[in-house]
Amino acid sequence: MSDQQGEDxxxxxxxxxxxxxxxxxxxxxEELDLAFESRFVEPLHSERNAVKxxxxxxxxxxxxxxxxxxTMAESENIVEYLDRTYGEERLAPSEA
Length: 96
What we know:
- This protein is of the alpha+beta class.
- 32% of the residues lie in helices and 19% in strands.
- The chain is built from three helices and four strands.
- It has helices at residues 20-31, 49-55, 75-86, and strands spanning 11-15, 36-40, 62-65, 70-73.
- α1 links the parallel β1 and β2 (36-40).
- α1 (20-31) packs parallel to α3 (75-86).
């Protein structure tokens, strides 16, 4: 899950232990069979400086995808991004 053939995964997930929004993103990453690294943040919102430096917010989850250069927060947005970017067989391209 967090290590693929000894290489560092290109996706980093900033998360809290037992956070339902974070778990939603973890489930999607696993369903899409994407290697990722979890970085657990401080439980106290005001002390989440690492995620603040990366994403400009102290809320989690936050995903950093080095493949595409994307950094984003909010579980719903992250799941949609993962489906759009890595789940081609799950979602048909929407060309109106």
